[in-house]
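Tokens for MoaD/ThiS family protein. Go.
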Amino acid sequence: MKVLIPSALRSYTTHGEVEANGATLASVLADLDRRYPGIRFRMIDEQQQIRAHIRFFYASAQLRDLAQPLDANGELIIVQALSGG
């Protein structure tokens, strides 16, 4: 599946668009971490929860559950909020 990477995480991938495999959001993120070590921790915390500043979108819907099933032909969009003032 195509995964769109936000600029803040491109230090891991060096690309804005990468490929990943998996039948659920959790397995796609695990595959991304296998390919780009450390990237998953920037999105998922120690309690296996999506970090507050990260959003995942698939088929125009926000994903809130790591067990969410995904189609291999889809597109996962990762959005990272910026903060500051």
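The longest helix spans residues 25-35.
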